[in-house]
TrEMBL record:
Keywords: Hydrolase. Residues 32-197 form the Metallo-beta-lactamase domain. Pfam families: Lactamase_B. One of its GO terms (molecular function) is hydrolase activity. This is Zn-dependent hydrolase.
Length: 218
């Protein structure tokens, strides 16, 4: 079946099958958070992005093979409600942005900085530090050697705009700068965007609207 990226809490997961990587998207919790399970097709090693809520659903999606790692994109509580239970059940190593780790009440094994590489089997993900939604938010970029890039943006980029900066002009200026320079300027229009809530998008769909985002200030 064709991947749409449209999932709902209580509904089935959606699977994006790439040549080297399988991406399973599931929605969990009262804030309709997205969690993404990445599986290296060569080694079957798995990594979870955001153990947001509903450990039962996440562990069922993970299955008996477990996960090697779990990455928390940022410190906001709706993105780590199931983290402790998932780590206890799987023994996964935890990753989070260096400047957000102290706000996550589960110990972080690996502090992530801008440009760091996180591996899942033979697949490499590049972390991008995006400041503004939180001090230590990270996005993960998979530059697929067989196709276009894929980027997991947490709450820093959605269809229609960047993440919430709560009318803080300085925070918005920081976030829009980082998203432009590290995501839009670095990646092509074909890049698939997987946000922390809601439907997926592409950089090409969002790029024409950057001037509008600047003008409105959010």
């Amino acid at each position: 079946m064709t991947y749409s990226g449209e999932v709902r809490v209580g509904g089935p997961a959606d699977v994006h099958e790439l040549k080297d990587l399988m991406i399973t998207k599931v929605a969990v919790g009262p804030m309709n958070n997205n969690a993404y399970l990445l599986r290296c097709r060569a080694t079957d090693e798995q990594l979870l992005i955001d153990a947001a809520n509903d450990a039962h659903t996440l562990l069922g999606t993970i299955g008996d093979d477990g996960i090697a790692s779990v990455v928390t994109t940022h410190r906001h509580a709706d993105h780590w409600q199931a983290l402790a239970e998932v780590v206890a059940a799987t023994g996964a190593r935890t990753h989070a942005g260096r400047h957000d780790a102290d706000g996550i009440p589960v110990p972080t094994d690996v502090l992530v900085d801008d440009g760091d590489t996180i591996r899942v089997g033979q697949v490499e993900l590049t972390a991008r530090h995006l400041v503004g939604h939180t001090p230590g938010s990270i996005a993960l970029v998979y530059d697929d050697p067989h196709g276009h890039p894929h980027v997991f943006t947490g709450d820093c980029l959605f269809p229609g705009g960047v993440g919430n900066t709560h009318k803080d002009a300085k925070a918005f200026a920081s976030l829009i700068h980082d998203v432009e320079t590290k995501i839009f300027d670095a990646l092509p229009d074909e890049t698939w965007v997987y946000p922390g809530h809601g439907n997926d998008t592409s950089l090409g769909a969002e790029r024409p609207h950057l001037p509008e985002w600047h003008a409105r200030g959010w």
